[in-house]
Amino acid sequence: MKMPAAAATPPAANSRAAQSYCENIADAAADARFLSQKAELMKLDDELARRTALLEQKTNEYKEWLGRRNEFLRKAEQSLVELYTKVKPDAAAAQIAAMDEESASALLIKLSTKKSSAILDEMPPEKAARIVAVMIGAFREQDGPASAAAVSNEGARKDAAKSASPSRQKEDKS
Q1: DSSP output for 109-128
Q2: From CA 37, how far away is CA 17, in angstroms rounded?
Q3: CA angle, 128 as apex, 121 and 151 as ends, to 5°?
Q4: Is 90 helix (H, G, I), strand (E, B) or coil?
Q5: Could you report the average pLDDT of every consecutive run of 10 residues in the chain (174 residues)?
Q6: Inter-residue contact 133 to 102 (CB < 8 Å)
C-alpha cells in the first residue's frame, strides 16, 4: 500500500509551506478586508444620509405643524379674551371658576384689570385665591422676584382693605 504524498512529507516542510503561503497572500487578504470594510462603511454612510434626510423632513413637518398650531391658539386666545371682555362679570365668574386654575389665570391676565377684578369679585373666595396664586406665580416666572413681590404686596393690601371694618372701607374709598 502506498502512502499519500502529503503524509510522506515531514511536518516541518508542511509548516514552512503553509507559512510561506500565508506570507504571500497577506497583502491580498489585507486589501480584501479593507475593501470589505470600505464597502460596509459606504453602506452605513448611505443609510445614515437617508435617515438624516428623513429626520430633517419630519423636523420641517413638525415645525410647520407647530407654527399652524401656535397661530390657531393665538387667534383662539384673542377671540376668547374678546368674548370674556363682553360677558357680564357674574356669568364670566361662574364659567371661569369651572376652568382649571392655570387656564383661568391665563385668561384673567389677558383681560383688563378692571374686568379681571370684577370677575374675581364674583367668584367663590377659595377659587379666586387659588387663581390669584397661579397668576402671581406667572408674574414671578416672567418678571422675576421683584414684580412678584409687588403683585403680592398689592394683593395683601387689597385683602387687608376688604377685611377692614365698613367705616374703614369708606375712609379708604375717599
Answers
A1: HHS-HHHHHHHHHHS-HHHH
A2: 29
A3: 90
A4: helix
A5: 53 75 82 93 96 97 92 82 92 93 89 94 94 83 48 46 42 42
A6: no
Query: 87 vs 66, 90, 106, 114, 115, CA distance in Å?
Result: 31, 8, 17, 13, 10
State residue 88 phi and psi, 5-degree precision: -65, 145
- Specify whether the CB–CB gap between 97 and 104 falls below 8 A: yes
Q: Which amino acid is present at 157?
A: R
| CA–CA–CA angle 144, 149, 154 (5° rounding) | 135
Query: Could you tell me which of 134, 171, 170, 124 has the C-alpha nearest to residue 155?
Result: 134
SS3 87: coil
How many whole angstroms separate alpha carbon 168 and alpha carbon 32?
98
For 65, phi then psi, to 5°, come to: -65, -45
Q: 115 vs 87, 93, 102, 118, CA distance in Å?
A: 10, 10, 18, 5
CB of 142 closer than 8 Å to CB of 150: no
All cell numbers assigned to 132:
390669584
What is the four-CA torsion angle of 157, 163, 164, 167, rounded to 10 degrees? 120
pTM above threshold 0.70: no
CA 14 to chain centre: 70
Q: Are 115 and 85 in contact (CB under 8 A)?
A: yes
Position of cell 515531514? 10
